[in-house]
Amino acid sequence: xxxxxxxxxxxxxxxxxxxxxxxxxLEFIQIFIDQQKTKEGAKRGTWKKFETVLNHLKNYxxxxxxxxxxxxxxxxxxxxxxxxxxxxxxxxxxNNAAKIIKVTKQFMNEALKHKYHENHIYxxxxxxxxxVKVKNKVRLNFEELKKLIxxxxxxxxxxxxxRDLFVVGSFTGLxxxxxxxxxxxxxxxxxxxxxxxxxTQKTESEVIIPFLPELKTILEKYxxxxxxxxxxxxxxxxKDVCKMILEGNTILRIYSEGGKKKSENVEKWERVxxxxxxxxxxxxxxELGISPVILMQVTGHTTEKQFFEYIDLNKxxxxxxxxxxxxxxxxx
Length: 332
What we know:
Layout: H1 2-9, H2 25-38, H3 44-64, H4 75-86, H5 94-113, H6 142-150, H7 157-170, H8 176-179, E1 187-190, E2 193-199, E3 206-210, H9 213-221, H10 231-246, E4 250-257, E5 260-267, H11 274-287, H12 292-299, H13 304-310, H14 315-330
Helix pairs in contact: 2-3, 2-5, 7-9, 7-10, 7-11, 11-12
């Protein structure tokens, strides 16, 4: 069989048309990824995620010295692979393991469509990894944003640029990649209100956002050409900037590592990042009474369940908001 296969591949013999080679599981995944890359409107973030999972599967198979094929994706594989993800030096979180298993199941589904296997074990209840609720990210409330805006950073231009960019994100709800897309012509007057209309990069959808005074001040300061900075440098510098107003302010961080749920008290400034601006926008304006439906057209969440999992409000915040709204509407 080996010699015959060599003859086929070297062109010494013609392969019978009736015989079709079925790619192995890992070969199929690579074929699938290559197809995703060439699809119209393909996004790097999507196929890059697939490549990451493929690398995990390859490394697992190599380290465990096992052959990964369609029939091997069973309960034994599931438990062994998840434990491998949790073990050092990987120490994946529970939610990251959940994503990896979910994508692995997606690969199996795609192969099933091509009739490359008849294995349905991966569809059984409990095969997936259940996600856990964590609290890793933070937001700055309006009071903290006000302190940030009022900081005199004229003697440190790098800090000033990062602060200004963060303010743009906090008053638009846009992703970091969209901050630089804002142009003067994107500001429109509609029924006496100034609005920012923009086509977002990730979802390729139009968002319409009020052109708020804080945003206007920053954009006019830079003549609508915001300073360019890499997201890595931005996140490093932002922590130093926020430390100036948040030092001593701690939060309870709930996370998972190596498959175990953990918690710790950390300085709030240590957890800020570019995404903190977007979360601040969604949470602050929801607290202000803006309908989730209106905010979701900016954040891109398709359900209120997703939206409420995204915003940074605990049960006490929600209870206080409830009490205030009741008092306002009942005049008590």
